[in-house]
Protein 1
Amino acid sequence: MQTHKRRVKTRHIILAVMCLMYFISYIDRVNIAVAGPIIRHEMGLTTVQLGLVFSAFAYPYAFMQVIGGWLSDKYGPKLVLTVLSLIWGAATLATGFAGSVAMLVALRFALGIGEGGAFPTATRAFTYWMPVAERGFAQGITHSFARLGGAVTPPLVLAVVVAGGWRDAFILLGVASLAWTVLYLCVFTNSPEQNRRVTPEETAEIGYRAGDCERAKRAATPWRKLIRRMWLVTFVDFCYGWLLWVYLTWLPSYLKEARGFDLKQLALFTALPLLAGVIGDTLGGVVSDRLYKRTGRLRFARCAVLVVGMGGSLVFLLPMVSATNPLMAVLYLSASFFFLEITNPVLWTLPLDIGGRYAGTAGGMMNTGFGVAGMISPVVFGYLIETTGSYNVPFTISACLLGVGIVAAFFIDPARTVEADEERERLEGRPLDGMPAFMQAGAAVRLERHHLRRPLRWWR
């Protein structure tokens, strides 16, 4: 009797490669925070100069969201993500040879350019590889690897720093990033029809139609439709991103200054909320997909997870502010971050649901909310701490913003897609966005006379 080994599906191999990208890119992003004190001591940097090095990443990161996503829609995610990963890999590698604050700022700026367009491009890469019922899981597992990268960065980078110095840490991470680019080039294709390994059965499971990828490249980007459908998702992402940036930037300071933990305790209790986020990211995507499979209601499957995630984060954040026991405060923070991260895969799935073949641009629009929050939240949070002398006020404001995001999430409808808008306009005979004016006029004339059975003679 002949037995057949179960074949690993190609889309799952691609998903594993993308998980590795999220993991490496996040380490490249936050490694500077771990090595920062050592770099400052070696180069004799002031606090302001080190802050400039830290912030140089955020601005191109926010700016590149829509640009990177749009480029991936037009030229395909394989080419765009290859170029972006080469940029951030080379920037990370070159940081190990930096000799001045100006060079550090320039290299962090380049890192922001490379990583700024990476996540929207990765989202676009899933458009023709992940079925609707697996998109939540795909976004959840990839972003859980990003949080895992953030959690392992301190011990990983510090181990290399102890063994060989901070420069070795950047050189090794840069080499790892460039090695991932080679792996990506070998494995990924823009669509299933371009991949020799994909079977017809898997193509049917994905729901891909032959020629969809090439037709998407030729299509004009419907900017107005995308903005109309995505602006609310962007706003909810801003509310989510505000609190996430607080965790990523102010958590160690809060635990040390407001809760009195020493350095040894700080390493453990800083990692604990981030590890809770790893579980939350994966669970949020799985739950959303399960709800969709069981109910067939896409809006319920997405919005219910958004509301529960942000609501749960709010519920645990409020008692954290008033907790007197430092350990209980850490547990509340971990629970709050767990629920907050439940929403993350859904937020990244919505551009796929709503944008479809324009998912790169839609994902860039959505994550612009997170980028803007990254520019504002840490500064405002720090200003409020300085003016009030307490962490309670900025945490309370963050909680209020979560409440506003919950209300906004009720009005998101992923079933109202951009492609549905285009199809409706096509059936109604209206021209699509991006059509030149003279073509619109011509189309209007043709549509007006289409119903006539005989030609209209000019003398009548």
Protein 2
Amino acid sequence: MYAQTARTTASRSRDRMSYDRDTAHAVLDEAYHCALGFTVDGEPRVLPTLHVRIGDTLYLHGSTGSRPLLAARDGGLPVCVAVTLLDGLVYARSQFHHSANYRSVIAHGTAHLVTDPDERARVCTALVEKTATGRAADSRPPSRRELAETAVLALPLMEVSVRARDGGVRDEPTDLDLPHWAGVVPLRLTAGLPEPDTGVSTAVPAYLQPARSPWHEPVPLHGGYVRLEPLDLSHADELFAATADPEVWRHLGRRQPVDAAELTVAIGDYLTARHRGEQVPWVQRCAATGAVIGTTSYYEIDPERRSVAIGHTFLGRPWWRTAINTEAKLLLLARAFDELGAVRVLWHTDIRNERSQRAIERLGAHREGVLRMHRLRPDNSWRDTVQYSMTIDEWPNAQVKLRERLRAKATVAG
């Protein structure tokens, strides 16, 4: 526990106060930034800045040219640091009782400038690691010049208080019958889809990807003819070149892209859907040449019902009716049934796309019916969708036949 002092004792709502060390540390560690308050020449100043806690010291990031850092050189700088996490908005029947759920930490003390180069380097590494575990090893460390331009304040955590509110609405009893909606809207900070900088060709690292169940992970799948790898924006140029044929796009859910930039937008949509847990997209590579030749996905992913659909597939025309297409489906089916424990795999295709329907039937799938006016085509006409499925009971026989087809294609190719 932190010792309660005059500066950390609340004058009202004392039931919301805490001095628990672990609770305070948890708030400081979860938050990415803080407000640093101080005075310069008798004038109040508040600066937003990054922070990281190491043990019982809070380190604050700054520039060697900033006023608080300059003031901290001689004897330290009296500061007050505030960190707040907003957890929800509380809507009461009365305006007076509207509130917020939150967790906040206030720390008082004297901050000192960190002058030891090794300590400053450790803090800079800790700040980077706070953004994502593993990031420090996946980025260039600061140079001597950069370290010289970086200032770090160290604030010993001694006078610390936690203030928090949780729970629901606290209306007056006389207001409970008023005809107004009341309740709590939870809020949380969530990471969006990573947006690569211009010229970046490296795939988004795993530590920036949301934690997913195995059903939502595009694990690499390797066969003798095709490799399935996680789809990425860097695949756009090769994928555009491989699929630049109107026949490839004739029955797909989006119009043919006019250039690689437009295909990049389409890939971005797939990756956004993956980030939301709605799709698992792969790029297809020819195992012999390594060339990007198409893409395919899981979608309608339902681990609870142990069901998944295969689709959003487009493949360069030279590879149609080859072992590549057969093996890609075999890899996806084996992953679904044998690794994920699926009991049902689905396919959907445009009722006009007879070629696709025959291809799905050759996999051993069964036609279940037609979903009328199911989706809009790129020309805004309504599409009737043919739905196929394969169940776990049908998979063993279908797998044998698919492997026989692959061996037959290999014999013909040889």
Protein 3
Amino acid sequence: MTAAVHPDAVHPDAVHPDDAAAAVARAHRDEWARLVGTLTRRFGDLDVAEEAAAEAFAAAVARWPADGVPRNPAAWLTTTAQRRALDRLRRESKRDARHQEARMLHDDTPPEPLGAVDDDRLRLIFTCCHPALAMPSRVALTLRLVGGLTVPEIASALLAQEAAVGQRITRAKTKIKAARIPYRVPSAEDLPARVTGVLAVLYLVFNEGYLASGSGTDPVRQDLTAEAIRLARLLHDLLPDDGEVTGLLALMLLTEARREARVAGGELVTLDEQDRTGWDADLIAEGHRLVRERLVAAAAGTPPGRYQVLAAINAVHTSARDVRETDWSQVVALYDQLAVVDPSPVVALNRAIAVAELDGPDVGLALVEPLAAALDDYHAYHATRADLLRRCGRDAEARDAYDRAVALTGNTAEAAALRRRRDAAR
């Protein structure tokens, strides 16, 4: 008997296994969050949604090479996932499972509007970032369910242990179920108070794409940066007058504009060595326009927040046609401003880098050394220290610092660049 072929599939002879695998990967990148969001809206349970979505993608991995890639992968995955979710309900033998199944299969009533923006992924973000959850749990859960990151990737992004991240995700889902946290975009009056946690999550998703971790991962993951920018644009449409939303979008655009120039020959290319003709002029122009909007607001008496200052720093960098034209005094002044709203050791580290460009590597190194206790497990601290030691002529110490940075970084292209600089310090 010939096996039935999914009606949306192409003929299997037309699909090479590599093409099918690429189609699954593309669908996972494009549809994971939307699928989890759709299932959450329909079934009201994050565990059911996540498990059913994962099973649907597993089915795609198994079936698409043989049956063909569906003409509408999203519809195929949604149908498959919904069937898997219903199968789970049957297995759990809930008392009202048959009634619930019948309603889900035959209820043609249009869903009630759940918020100001008709996007399941945005609803999912606000659910994961509900204030009833601890901030670390909000971040981890959203990175998993919306960003589609694995637990090891999340652990790297958060500088946390994998076991701890897994526990956060489990506890967060349990809390959502027990507290009956609604799956919706908050009302207009509640949005400003809720958006801070969402911005933190989107920034971490973007950063994981900007400097991806994992030995088998592309050094720059455009899927993650593009998704973070897409959701940041949605938030900007929703809250056009929120300075931090505008600032984060500008920061992402100005950073993304340099993506094509950031990796060459398998190595990460530092800002001072990048070919600036390869930067995306359209993204830079858009980012600069957003920064100027916030400068006008600041002049009117609205003090800038963290993301607005970071965007302004990136605007200074992307305004220079050559690294030698960078206005380092302005960069230092902006980091001074940032330290007021975000007095973290990472900000102090980045300020020291700018000071070193302005006043010399020995001055910068004197600012970096006291940060050792706070940043000893942070690869960028050791990479910065190594570069400054090398510039000061302390090559042996620089090589040791480069080795420590290589051991800590999870990005393959960055590790390659660090090894090259280490080998040059002889």
